[in-house]
Specification:
about 15% strand, Arc Repressor Mutant, subunit A, Rossmann fold, about 210 residues, homodimer, 2 domains
Chain lengths: ~210, ~210
């Protein structure tokens, strides 16, 4: 594998894989970069360029084989196996995350949950016993957790991220509304609906000059 | 305002505004692009370039005035006013969104909620009475909704987005796991934790060659 693939390219691959899975489920066997691009609001040239990092897919003028490309993308991304997940912070959001079945369906299995509140630690949600935060390092020393989901309040998020990283977690999905830091070699993604809304109001403001 | 500012630049501005607000709350009055960049994992050159789209901020070698820059960014993004929000799809996720107080704190006021299930429509959550989906167009004809949050299942999401757009909604935050389409002039952002996880497993796979 070429080592210098831009992260934005990697981040688009799951969208390609998902669109291909939908096409395959609908019985389509061949798709052009044009059609795939229209479904994803990406230009055909972008799709071809993104895929070119990983080898040659499809034949000139014949499009891509839907099932093959889906399988190859899934293998490239490591989606052909399961990954273990822990959730840290079991407030309202953390509970909703534990109850969400979309992760398991896609091979992300939540195996542990942590919360510092004594009234939460010890409870069982979706079959997962919530552990005390004080047990985090001990647990991670004995179990491999591939991805940690952080759903603690903003003030605690960086400290929690630091503890996870120190315990060897290499991928973090952060729901706390801060720009959390990780050392090189650790992946982090931020989910921040407020920031996303704030990126749209700029356009609303321009579109609606009477909205003052 | 220059009309050709890349969307990626606009999307970074809320992060700058938030970091500046945190600095201001801590009593800082001046910040360099270096320090701001370190907090956000953005290069100082990127910050200076992003801000240059909107005029001149800060003085050579003296850094930015924290409060001034925060206020100017908030004005640019339209964060110095409130925006009205409706939530469509009041399942577990939609309920969690209605119960989340982070939107209101940032000026995003949820004024309406919709669900097609008869047992949900009619209930009241956080003071908001959930309306039937059949009332969506009628409601939007009489009330201005700036941003719609879509939290319906994947199969229904595009149809819901279409109805919202047809009723004049110009910004959509989509939690459904599909790449939904909107016409030009309408903003959409996708929140998809599974896709974010899938963009990280690529790196996990490379980092852990024994994880097959």
């Amino acid at each position: 594998m070429t080592p210098v693939i831009p992260e934005v390219v990697i981040n688009r691959l799951p969208l390609y894989a998902r669109a291909l899975a939908t096409l395959a489920a609908a019985g389509d066997t061949v798709v052009s970069s044009q059609t795939l691009g229209e479904q994803l609001d990406v230009t055909p040239a972008q799709i071809r360029k993104d895929l070119s990092y990983f080898g040659r897919f499809g034949k000139q003028g014949r499009g891509y084989n839907v099932g093959d490309l889906r399988d190859q993308l899934r293998a490239i991304l490591g989606l052909d196996r399961t990954w273990s997940v822990c959730v840290v912070g079991i407030g309202r959001l953390g509970q909703a995350i534990l109850e969400y079945d979309g992760f398991t369906q896609q091979g992300f299995n939540t195996i542990a949950a942590f919360d510092e509140a004594p009234e939460v630690a010890g409870s069982t949600i979706q079959g997962i016993k919530v552990q005390s935060m004080s047990n985090l390092e001990n647990y991670l020393a004995g179990e491999t957790v591939d991805i940690a989901v952080v759903a603690v309040p903003a003030e605690q998020a960086q400290a929690v991220v630091d503890r996870l990283v120190k315990s060897g977690v290499q991928a973090i999905l952060n729901y706390a509304p801060i720009s959390a830091h990780v050392p090189e070699g650790v992946s982090i993604r931020q989910i921040d609906p407020v920031v996303m809304m704030q990126g749209m109001t700029y356009y609303l403001k321009d579109l609606n000059p009477d909205n003052k």
